[in-house]
Structures are given as structure tokens and as C-alpha cells.
Amino acid sequence: MNPEFYQHIYKTQQKTESVPPNERIAAWVSQLLCLMYPERASCLTHSPEQIAQQFNQLQYDLIDLLNATKACATDDNVKKGGIFFQRVPELYRVLSTDINAILDGDPAAHTRFEVIRAYPGFTAIAFYRIAHALLELETALLPRIITEWAHSITGIDIHPGAEIGEHFCIDHGTGIVIGETCIIGDYVKLYQGVTLGALSVDKSMANTKRHPTVEDHVIIYSGATILGGETIIGNHSIIGGNVWLTKSIPPYSTVYHRPDIEVVEQINS
């Protein structure tokens, strides 16, 4: 091959060698979640003092990650690391509402332990909430790496820029897509294959609201597609499976897709 190609690859390598591997970034998130929810793995501690020490270590690790990804000046990263961990108790509270929503909303879920340990919906939501909290601190790169890692292991794609309320329930979840400018209220439940997307992917729309708003107490069943930044799903609405929506609906609506299916009974002669 052309030597210029090798030179190009080498220069790219020099620019990116300081950025930690995605695995290390994901491991930091997993350690944080494990400390918050020991049900996720065998990471038990023996005293409140040890828990405090581990949180302090994770704060230092976050600052290192921010410095390595050149999120901003080192002093700013120290400040942002401190702010993030001041917000961890509130993050824990909100995530606990999500656990309760999944437990209450899925007849197959029997215990909080089961939801925390086994449910991909909770994993995707937890990674998203951590990534969103970091994005609110105007950190670069880390939030997107975190949610894309969760996407790779759960099949659930939540952009860190989306705004999602409390008591959020994802049931099954595979194939769900939630776009960057989505706004989702409280007590919303999504099933597998739901897309909350944009009507257009034109680059000129990068700084506009491209994705729908879903108000409180909405249920969206599997395969539904809802598109557009001006599309609002009114509170307490139910969106049936395979529905395609590009316009707003009022509160307390029920929207469903009516397929034409004919079953012909075969009579053996």
C-alpha cells in the first residue's frame, strides 16, 4: 500500500492515543453502579467508611477520564468531578424510581434484585442517566461513549442528550431508539422496537429539536415509530404496536394500527 496511507494512520494514532479505551470508560460506569447497587455483582463493602473511600476513588478516576479525553482544562475537570459526585444521591433516587417502575410494570419481574441484576432495560437506563448527568456538566465524548456501550450490550439506543423523567420503564427493550432531543415525562413505559426519531436526518438540523415529546403516563407498545420535533404525545395516551405517527395527539388518546389480516381455514377433503 501507499506509504502515505501508513503515515495518515500513524498521525491519527498520535491524536487519539491519550483517549482511554471504551472498555475502561464502561468499567468506571459499572463500578459506580455496582457501588450504588451491590445487587449487580460481588462488590460488597464492610463499612460506610469503605464505601466513602470507594466513591472518592471513583471521583479521582472520573477526573482522570475527563483529563484524558480533554473535556476541558484540568482545574475545571476537578470541579466537574466534584459536582457530579455531589449529585450521585439524587441520581440514585431517580434510578430507584425506574427500578420500581419496571418492577410494578412487568408481571414477570418478582424482586428489585431481579430487575437490577438481570434486566437490560434497567442497565440501559442507568448508563443513560449517568451519561446525561455528565453531559449536563458540558463534558465531551464520555457521555456518548457510555450510552453507545450500553447500546452494544442491551440493544437499546438512548442518546445522552435526551431528557427523561422519573419512573421510566423499558420492557424487553431490544431495538428501542430514543433520539438526542427527545423529551420524555414521568411514568412512561416503552416496549421493544419503539423509535422516537427525527423526520429528517439533514445535518442542517443539528441544533434544532428533531425528536418528539412524550408526556407523563404514556405507554408505547412494540414497533411503534414516532417522528418529529413538533410531535407531542399527550399525557395518559396509549400508542399501539406498529403505529406510525408524525403529528401530535391530545391527552388521553388511544392510537392503534389496524392491519388487514385474513385467515383462511383449509378444509381437508
Summarize the structure.
This protein is 44% helix and 12% strand.
Structure description:
With 269 residues, the protein is an alpha/beta fold. It has two domains: 18-156, Orthogonal Bundle (serine acetyltransferase, domain 1), CATH 1.10.3130.10; 175-257, UDP N-Acetylglucosamine Acyltransferase, domain 1. The chain is built from eight helices and 14 strands. It has helices spanning 3-16, 22-36, 48-68, 74-86, 88-105, 112-118, 120-136, 142-154; strands at residues 157-158, 163-164, 169-171, 177-178, 183-184, 189-191, 195-197, 213-214, 219-220, 225-227, 232-233, 238-239, 244-245, 254-255. It has a five-stranded parallel beta sheet. Helix 2 (22-36) packs antiparallel against helix 3 (48-68), helix 5 (88-105) runs antiparallel to helix 7 (120-136) and helix 7 (120-136) packs antiparallel against helix 8. The longest helix has 21 residues, at 48-68.
Biggest sheet strand line-up: 1-4-7-10-13
Strand element count: 14
What is the name of the CATH class of the largest domain?
Mainly Alpha
- Which series of helices and strands comes N to C? HHHHHHHHEEEEEEEEEEEEEE
| Shape field | globular
The parts where pLDDT drops under 50 for at least 5 residues are none
**β-strand amount:** 5-15%
| Radius of gyration, in angstroms, nearest whole number | 22 Å
User: Which class best fits the helix and strand makeup?
Assistant: alpha/beta
- Assembly type of the chains comes to single chain
Descriptive tags:
UDP N-Acetylglucosamine Acyltransferase, domain 1; 44% helix; 2 domains; alpha/beta; serine acetyltransferase, domain 1; 14 strands; 269 residues; globular
